[in-house]
Write a structure and sequence with these properties.
Oligomer: single chain
Number of helices: 4
Shape: elongated
Strand content: 25-35%
Largest sheet: 5 strands, antiparallel
Radius of gyration: 27 Å
Strand order of the largest sheet: 4-3-2-1-5
Length: 140
């Protein structure tokens, strides 16, 4: 049922032709842009998750993991870089610095990208258990 059927027929006949128009498509451009942005965010998230799974299954020396963990009630983030691989274990270089936000982690990457002094060796099974704490993996 259109809005024209809600208007009194006498008033509708007295209006000049072309007075009542449909809503232009351009009025919905903002909604379309919001929809496209939401779709792009979803696609980027899915792509990042697939890349992370692929890199976890086939780690390479030099891969940098963004890892987070809880410390004193806060989420702390740092970088783990793969230093050595064997058939059953992975040895990480752990970055000397930590960040409490994604922005801080980005700054850490820029200013302290080669500040690794501590090492940690984990089994491949432990690496699989760590995947919930890994935000992303960068392969150089």
């Amino acid at each position: 049922m259109s809005y024209q059927s809600e208007i009194n027929p006498q008033i509708l006949q007295s209006l000049p032709p072309g007075t009542i128009r449909k809503t232009p498509i351009g009025y919905f451009a903002g909604l379309m842009l919001i929809g496209l942005l939401a779709a792009a965010i979803v696609i980027a998230g899915i792509s990042g998750a697939k890349k992370k799974e692929k890199y976890l299954k086939d780690p390479k020396v030099g891969d940098v993991y963004e890892l987070s963990y809880a410390k004193d009630g806060k989420t702390i983030r740092t970088l783990y870089r793969i230093a050595n691989l064997t058939t059953d274990s992975v040895t990480f270089d752990i970055n000397d610095y930590e960040a409490d936000s994604r922005k801080g982690l980005r700054k850490l990457r820029e200013q302290h990208s080669n500040s690794y002094s501590e090492k940690q060796k984990v089994s491949r099974a432990e690496l699989e258990d760590m995947k919930n704490r890994i935000a992303s993996i960068e392969r150089l």
